Amino acid sequence: MTKQGALFYNKIDDRYYIRFGLDSFSYELHCGDGMEVLIDNKWISTRIEKGQRWYLVDIGNYSIDSLIVRVPKSGELTASEVFS
Q1: Which domains does the chain have, with CATH numbers?
Q2: N or C: which end of the chain has fewer CB within 10 A?
């Protein structure tokens, strides 16, 4: 079972999260974390990595901010936990 959301960058801790709703986020993403991303109406398997910037492997030169992704269901954080 999967959960769908949008990639969200938190400047406070220089990490990406997946935003599932107004007050629902994934745990912080780490290098190597896998997901599927929706590009041109197709789901593509990828993983997040960081060099000089955060990027998704094998998706081309897309800005990853706000891309729609899906991941296996797991724990979530509230907005107050992400921004504290």
Answers
A1: 2-82 (2.40.10.390)
A2: N
Q: How confident is the model at residue 31 (pLDDT cuts 50, 70, 90)?
A: very high
Number of Cα atoms under 13 Å in the Cβ half of residue 83: 7
Q: Which backbone phi and psi does 60 adopt, to 5 degrees? A: 85, -160
CA count, 13 A, side-chain hemisphere, 48:
23
**Percentage of residues in the chain having pLDDT higher than 70:** 87
Q: Is 41 exposed, middle or buried (0-12, 13-18, 19+ CB in 10 A)?
A: exposed
3, 64 in Cβ contact below 8 A?
no
